[in-house]
Amino acid sequence: MSSHKVMLLGEIGVGKTSLVRRLIDDKFATDYGPTTGVDLYHYNCPADPPDLPEDTSLVIWDTDGDFGENIFRHAYITGAAAALIVGDASRPHTFETMLALADGFEASLPGRPFSLVINKLDLITDDTPLILPEALANSDRLFRSSAKTGANVKLAFDDTAATILRRGL
User: Fold this and answer.
1) CA-to-CA distance for 33 and 124, rounded, in angstroms?
2) What is the CATH number of the domain that holds 72?
3) pLDDT digits (tens, 9 = 90+) for 51-86
4) 90, 96 Cβ separation under 8 angstroms
5) Which domain covers residue 66, as residue numbers?
């Protein structure tokens, strides 16, 4: 079985743990405490899409949001094949952090893919439209998700796995 390390990055409270728990257990809870250090999760990828062999798995490193950009000077990042960088749709200031983390990931691990995930879309209403910075709005690696409803959670992780395999990482 091929195994690939994927970093889950973002500020505290953007829903990183909620996303991975929705992916792994297909559950959503509101009683998660903040992650301290790193929590590891294993996800066996389905053979769908067809370019994913059945024996592919992701080792997801759910990081403490307190690391911020210091994560790139920490041993945790070593060997990462990809990252999902998460922001909170209800807290637009997290978008700038997403972009800074994307720049840091790209500088630390050139050529490694990353996806940007705007989480908590279930909190956005017609009264509070989602306005993205141009750099996010124009990204071809942007996923809009809700860990609460499950919308696009599996898609973001499966797409990351497929990208890792296509690039031979």
Assistant:
1) 23
2) 3.40.50.300
3) 555 678 999 999 887 766 777 777 778 899 999 999
4) no
5) 2-167
